[in-house]
Amino acid sequence: MKQVTQTLRTGTVEVNEVPVPTLNDKFVLVKNTASVISAGTEKTKIDMGKKNLLQKAQARPDLVKQVIGKLKTEGFKKTFQTVMSRLDSPSPLGYSCAGTVVAAGGLVEGIQPGDRVACGGADYANHAEYVSIPKNLVVKIPENVTDEEAAFTTVGSIAMQGVRLAEPKLGETFLVLGLGLLGQIAVQLLRANGCKVIATDLDASLVSQAEKFGAVGVGPGADIESVCKEITAGHGVDGVLVCAGTASNQPIELCGAVTREKGRVVVVGAVRMDIPREDFFKKEINVVISRSYGPGRYDPVYEENGNDYPLAYVRFTEQRNMQTFLELVSQGKLDVKTLITHRFDVDQAAEAYELIEGDKTEPYLGIIMHYSHKDAAKQKAARIATNTKPINKAKIGLSFFGAGNYATASLLPPIVDKQDIELRGLVTASGRTAQGVAKQFGFSFCAGEFNKILTDDTDAIMVTTRHDTHATAVAAAINANKHVYVEKPVALNVDELKAIHKAKLEHDNAQLMVGFNRRFAPSTVAVLQHFESVKSPLVVNIRINSGDIPTDHWIQDSAVGGGRVIGEGCHFVDLASALVSSNPKTVTCIGTSKANKSALLNDNVSIMMTFENGSIANIIYTADGSKAMQKETIEVFGGGRSATINDFKEATLYSGDSKKEVKKLMGQDKGQKLMLKAWVDGMKSGTPCVEYNCLMANSLATILAVESLATGVSMNVDLSILG
């Protein structure tokens, strides 16, 4: 399918062929007929893309801070690869569209194929022939509303949320600053609330349009303050809706001057907000920043998981704002038809964006994108070629399922350098990133369905998607007789491990590798060599100062991420096993008491392990420590020797009473590169780099640790339970 994207490094707008997005149980697949280019929001994104690296850094100091933090821990090369990968990744444009439902997930109620719907969401309702939309961001279109009108729904909801926050009352006077799409719709909504509206913009034609909706227009160069005082008998306006988009502080300064005592200012657009204290303090002006479409925005529980807020407590959510907007259009109380100034086919996207970039001088307001009606099933089944180079069957054909930040920054760069690997297919859930990443790293093709990489031209598959998809993908790949590398965790529960084990028993030649990279780190290797001659059991102590992750993060969702012990703690269960060179025998886990933490999601735990060779390990995993302290500290004792690993930047080796050796690295190295080499070598030789039973035992031990935490019982790690 065709999708409009922007390359963040250059700001270039392109129309790319990308796979149709996949559908999950809580989403709806929609065939777009129309979408709206929101000039203000999208121009900001385009302008950011066209800045050079220094200008980008100056504009986003928050991201610069993240980069500096990454430099300190991971070094220049790794950080540079991560930054460049993100800049080269295509970014989707658009967030407001309308079309016809092609398919609905199993947990979607009230929406079925054939329904005309309006869609919202910057991550979902993009300028593309097909979009996959969460059920709470989809609403049916009334019969008398066209798809073009419905395409304005998300934009209209943004304006509506701003008006709601302004709490307009019958007979009040409001000033609307900025008369793009948001401002024009806000004028109409305020008028529908029985308010007098003053409207201003630097563009005289936009002021004239607002006057047609009943506003008192104040054109460029006019004294807005005087007009406001005259109309309000010197009191000032009851409220201001700032719908402009500018780096200037002038709109905020004007708000203080024209607003009455105890008036309201609602900021809808992206403006500078250095609030001058004098006016706002003396008048006790209430300033509110509107949260886009309404309650639910930026809440993954609402948007991604489809959990609605109770109407009695949250009357107007994102979805209910969208419904209300369409009802007002249907009733003839909102006019968006007259706002349409341009229509483009999706193939003309670059020309459309020239308008808002200022490359064209003609006036514009509502810009509509139209789409063709290609068959979704055929498009979904298609493999999109991204590299015409003939396949070299002498090399290992490697395909990827998933192309997130970790895959593009940590896995693909070293894989690309390997002479015995050839990248074949790339499948992503969203589809939108597949084509850009495939071209960037030299994949032969990209696709929208996992089964497209279960074919003869693929020898091995790397699974780098979210945790809840791992086990199903691994089992399917093994059943297709493919070697598999899967990012940890391999599974979220015992039943998923059983499914993988069943597949492995039937296809023993298919190698399984889990992304437990720390056992391959240079520091770990140095410690293993240090204890190589020690025959007695070892004692291992691992302390993880993991740092807090918000409770609404997907990792903290038990059904998606599995919690932090399963999602990240598995690394250290495996590391302990590697350090003692033995598989786990028992596991016991205790945690702190937190009212808001279930056993599954507890991220402050102590995991005690025994091993088949008599060794023991204790893993302290905590999210409540200071970020100023190092993250990972490992200690190993046995046979008169000791060793420590400090954040995988150095290893200190102790022997006897006085001998000490420090092995420092140039930067942090957690073993990803060496792990990938070992995995590839294992596929070539036919001998896995890590024994299958070891990987499964460590994965099972992690899952049983959570069960131990919940039950208070020590668990035996017995692979026979897998069947």
Description:
The chain is an alpha/beta fold. Helix content is 34%, strand content 24%. Helix 3 (61-88) crosses helix 15, helix 5 (153-166) crosses helix 6 and helix 15 crosses helix 21.
User: Structural class per helix/strand content?
Assistant: alpha/beta
Measured between the Cα atoms of the first and last residue, the distance is 43 Å
Estimated helix fraction: 25-40%
Helix count equals 22
For the secondary structure, the number of strands is 32
Largest sheet: 9 strands, mixed
Task: Indicate the mean pLDDT.
Answer: 90
Radius of gyration: 29 Å
What characteristic shape results from the CA principal axes?
elongated
